[in-house]
Amino acid sequence: MNRKVTVVGAGNVGASCALYLAEANLADVMLIDVIEDMPQGKALDLSEAGPVRGYDVKVEGSNDYAAAEGSALVVITAGIARKPGMSREDLLNTNIKIMDSVITGISRHAPGAMILVVSNPLDVMTHRAWKKSGLPAHKVFGQAGVLDATRFRTFVAMELGCAMTDTQAMVLGGHGDSMVPLPRYTTVGGVPITELIAHDRIDAIVQRTRDGGAEIVKLLKSGSAYYAPAASTVHMADAVLNDRKSILPASAHLDGQYGLKDVYVGVPVTLGAGGIEKIHELKLDKSELEALQKSANVYKEIIAGLAA
After folding, report:
1. 145-304, what's its fold?
2. Can you spell out the DSSP letters for 226-285?
3. Is CB count within 10 Å lower at the N or C end of the chain?
4. Element containing residue 188 per DSSP (H, E)
5. The domain 4-142: what is its CATH number?
């Protein structure tokens, strides 16, 4: 394979990303982590699964950012995981320091790579990665709305007893409690769920989507979700590496769209080989637009309080 993806952070999310990237035969994979020998061990284990699982890409591990050289895309999952009772914002101080260190290493050894951020708090971390990297905004984006929409789709399918693959959903806003699921843009077989599900049940599904990450954290009691976040991340990686021109909700830098400036927040974008190739402005009603702007302003306030 000529293409290469570096995954920074070889914990549950990062290792799962490496697995899904390999199983899709999307690119050679480099796992990087600060824990000595751990990424090398996981990479070797994944390599040894290749003959059985049918992938033929290189999976390697390293503790040195120099190993990221030549990457087309860098996926950043590094950071501490959310614990029960901890909000995404509680993670901020520790994970900002980790992000700064990661971007320093990536900028030195893979300056041309696009950056896909998965670390929480997602929208703040994506903004930080963009600022510290010096890359054009369209080359730095965050995995947020794809995961949130996937959770929304799952809960809709559970409610209707239909095939999960028949569902499509749109979730805007920050990757947190202020996210903005859009039921009227959410469909099953092309039919809006507002025609299929009672209003009170839609409200319950929307709330469960907002609480989706916290629900898993509570159930696991130690750690947080990783299968769905990793799958959603690789879905985005596929759109970039194979130039799909996919319309997906992603954390993107806004410069006037939706009345917002200098903030990363989840909006529908066209994702392809150029990264964020277009930001789509949906026709939102007053309450939806206000909810999106309120969500974005949460992160603007956090960003304003960060040290340079």
Report:
1. L-2-Hydroxyisocaproate Dehydrogenase; Chain A, domain 2 (3.90.110)
2. -HHHHHHHHHHHHHHHTT--EEEEEEEEEESGGG-EEEEEEEEEEEETTEEEEE------
3. C
4. strand 187-188
5. 3.40.50.720
User: How far is it, in rounded angstroms, from Cα 148 to Cα 171?
Assistant: 6
Dihedrals φ, ψ of 251, to 5°?
Answer: -75, 115
- Which residue ranges does the chain devote to CATH 3.40.50.720? 4-142
Asked whether the beta carbons of 15 and 39 are under 8 A apart, the reply is no
Tens-digit pLDDT profile for residues 105-151 = 999 999 999 999 999 889 999 999 999 999 999 999 999 899 999 99
Residue pLDDT, tens place only, 163-190: 999 999 999 999 888 899 999 999 999 9
Tokens of 285: 């009603």
Examine the residue annotation and report whether 175 is marked as an active-site residue of this protein.
yes
What residue spans in the chain does CATH classification 3.90.110.10 cover? Answer: 145-304
Owner of token pair 């708090």: 121
Residue 127 CA to residue 63 CA, distance in Å, equals: 25
Q: Full-prediction pTM beyond 0.90?
A: yes
In one letter, which amino acid is 58?
A: K
Q: Which residue among the candidates 127, 138, 175, 235 is catalytic per the annotation?
A: 175
Residue given tokens 């947020």 in the structure block: 144
Residue type, 171: V
